[in-house]
Amino acid sequence: MTMIFRLMWTYIYALIGPRCSVTEETRLPFRCWFTDLDINMHMTNTRYASFMDLGRMDMLFRSGAWKSMRAAGVYPVLGSATVRFRRSILPLQKFELTTRIASWDDKWVYYVQTMVVNGEAAGIGIVKKAFLDKNGRVPMDKIIALLGYDAPKPPITALIEKKNELDIALKA
């Protein structure tokens, strides 16, 4: 339930906060509340994914891409997410979530997201998303245009290639 309030805060921040480009890394500050904890008294693993959702939504809201996508009848869907947990986030601890688009291919946009505590990564996520409309998957060149991206495409890194290998290995 607390995530709905954070979603509302993210949306309000997007309305009144600074604009951004999808080409830049975005940052959101948070604090680990008691409702974010598991039995070990640190942030539960499911919250990492929830916060990362907020980071991607913040980027779409503040860049204006969300408005363009909704007007075009396009919506994002998660293809896969891989999270590496590095350090605990403790009760009442402040942390910052960074989000950036790393690259894309014919099907997916790849995001890298990091939860940072005191300058150190507490969790790192690689997320791939597709975009759909009423007819199915939307071609990536249309998505890139809707995102407002007009610079050269960043290269697919070895890290993203390994993520794709993992996703292929996990197909049932």
> What global shape is seen?
globular
The total domain count is: 1
Q: Quick check: average pLDDT? A: 92
The fraction of residues assigned to DSSP E strands is 25-35%
Radius of gyration (CA) equals: 16 Å
Low-pLDDT regions:
none
* Overall number of strands: 6
CATH domain topology:
Thiol Ester Dehydrase, Chain A
Straight-line distance between termini: 33 Å
* Number of continuous helical runs: 5
Largest sheet: 6 strands, antiparallel
CATH superfamily: Hotdog Thioesterase
What is the CATH class name?
Alpha Beta
Structural class designation: alpha+beta
CATH architectural group: Roll
Task: Describe the fold and architecture.
This protein has 172 residues and is of the alpha+beta class. 29% of the residues are buried. The mean pLDDT is 92. It has helices spanning 2-16, 45-63, 65-72, 140-147, 158-169, and strands at residues 26-31, 75-85, 94-104, 109-117, 120-133, 136-137. It is 36% helix and 31% strand. The chain is built from five helices and six strands; from the N terminus they run αβααβββββαα.
In short, what is this structure?
The chain has 172 residues and is an alpha+beta fold. It is built from five helices and six strands.
Protein traits:
6-stranded antiparallel β-sheet; globular; 172 residues; 6 strands; alpha+beta; Thiol Ester Dehydrase, Chain A
Give the topology, please:
Blueprint (H helix, E strand, L loop, with lengths): L1 H15 L9 E6 L13 H19 L1 H8 L2 E11 L8 E11 L4 E9 L2 E14 L2 E2 L2 H8 L10 H12 L3
Antiparallel strand pairs: 1-3, 2-5, 3-4, 4-5, 5-6
Helix pairs in contact: 1-2
